[in-house]
Structures are given as C-alpha cells and as structure tokens.
Amino acid sequence: MKRTLDIVVLSDIHLGTYGCHARELLNYLKSIRPKVLVLNGDVFDIWYFKKSYFPKEHLEIVRRILKMAVDGTKVYYLTGNHDDLLRKFGEMSFGLVHLRNKLVFQIDGKTHWVFHGDVFDASIQRARWLARLGGEGYDMLIRINRLINRTRELFGLPPVSFAARVKKSVKGAVKYISDFEDTAIQLAAEKGYDYVICGHIHRPQIRQITAGNGHVVTYMNSGDWVEHLTALEFANGQWSIHQYDAALYDMVSPRLRVPENEPEVYTLRREEVLPKSNGLAAFESF
To answer: C-alpha angle with apex 86: 127 to 234, nearest 5 degrees?
Structure first.
C-alpha cells in the first residue's frame, strides 16, 4: 500500500551518472502518493551527458515522475548547478511539470523558502571548470566505493562511505558545509522566512536555530540519492527525513507466498479516509 504524503522534496538524484541509485529511488517513488513533489535541483546531471550513459533504470525514474504528475501529483522542478542549462528557460511549465528557480509557499501560516543552494558556492560561480573537475573525482570515488561495498557484502560486512569519510576528515569540507547552512539560515531570517529547504551539499539535515535578529528558522536539507538515499517528507503536520531501507522493499517470489483467506470486502466513504482540509496553502512561487 502506498503512503499518502502532503509534500515530498527530492534533490541531487544525478541521473546520468554511475553514482545514481536509480533502482532504489524507483522503489521509493512507487511506494508513495504525494500531493506535491518538489525536485530541488541536480535531478539530471547535464554536465556528464557526454558520457552517453543513461541506462533503463534512469529512464524509469523520469517515467515514474511523469506518471505521478498524470495521476494528480503537482510536480515542481527547481534547477540546480548540474542541470543549470534549464535555467535558460526561466520559470515556465512543461505540461504537468512546473519549472522554477525557487519556490515559496506557506503551510499553516509558516513561510517555506525552497531552492537548490548552489548560489552559495563560489567555486561554481567563479571557477566552473574547477567545480566540474571536482565532480569528476567525486563520481569516480562513488564508483570505486560501490564496487568495494559489493565485495564487502559478499563477506557479510557492512557498507562504508568513502565520500562521507573524506568530508568529515577534510577541515575545509566541514567548514564549507557549516558555512553553507549558516548562510542559508541567515538569509532566511533576514527575509522573514520560517523554513529554508536546500539540497546541493548532499547532507540530509533538519535543525532549528534562532538567528541573530531573533527570528527562529528551521533549516532542512533533503540529502541525495548518491550517498545517503534520503528525502524530506511532510505529513500529519510535520517534516521528517526518510532514509531508504532496502529491507522494506525486498520482494518475495509469488511461488513462495502462502495463500491467505480472502478478506471481507467492504466500501469506505471518502470522508472516512481523507480529511476535509489539510491546512496547505496554494503553492505559488513569488
């Protein structure tokens, strides 16, 4: 049974790269029914399309998102640095998908500000070639990491993340992540926003802080589908981080299933299942 959610935020999927966990993401998307889906940047990795690597599993992600849109999910695509080519189109709608650079909306009177976050990255703004070089190295590290984890799995050992270890061990990387979060919180406080939601740094996070002007801001990051396999979910009036767990999606062969007695069939009225109002304001960027 699919989980009904109000909002789901995904970022840094990086379709078109070897590091993308497309199969796991497809499992996750098939398990949810969100009213709003926000794709917060770096969904496609346009920087590496020249590799001509776009397997079937990656195409299935696109098909699944479009199917969700057809079935009634409102889909917003916010551009990031790896798919910044789409920024040339400005803010417009492609059929059922709404292209934006940022998104601002309210839930129960609380203003949410959503954007990818690469505007804080000086290496992208000033030295694009350096950022791409770093991306190449990161992609190679992820590929080696995945190969080693497959070997560890054969020996019953838990997986390890080299990228996470590098980020924790390099002081510059730790400082960059901290500065990124602090800058996002400060800007949100200055604008009077209650929540700021980013991607870009591949670090899932939810934390609340009181800014210098006394305004309380909740910072959230949806993580990624390269290392952490996480998403932000809003349901029952609360935000949470969903961590993909392969054990929840293991499929049992129909031949191994024990037949069960047919359950009693009855009909539920719509008002018994869905609340009349969920307190969500209309989604409009401004």
So the answer is: 100
User: Residue 280 forms beta bridges with which residues?
Assistant: 107
- Tokens matching residue 239: 């935000």
If you search the block for the tokens 């009693």, which residue do you land on? 264
Q: How confident is the model at residue 183 (pLDDT cuts 50, 70, 90)?
A: confident
Radius of gyration, alpha carbons of the chain: 20
- List 231's β-bridge partners, or say none: 242
Residue 124, pLDDT > 80, answer: no
| Cα distances (Å, whole numbers) of residue 1 to 4, 32, 119 | 9, 8, 39
Q: Which among 122, 119, 41 has a CA at the least distance from the CA of 82?
A: 41
Q: Is the Cβ–Cβ distance between 45 and 16 less than 8 Å?
A: yes
Closest-CA residue to 234 (of 195, 208, 200)? 195
Length in residues, the chain: 286
Q: Do 214 and 186 touch, CB atoms closer than 8 A?
A: no
pTM: 0.74
Domains of the chain: 3-248 (3.60.21.10)
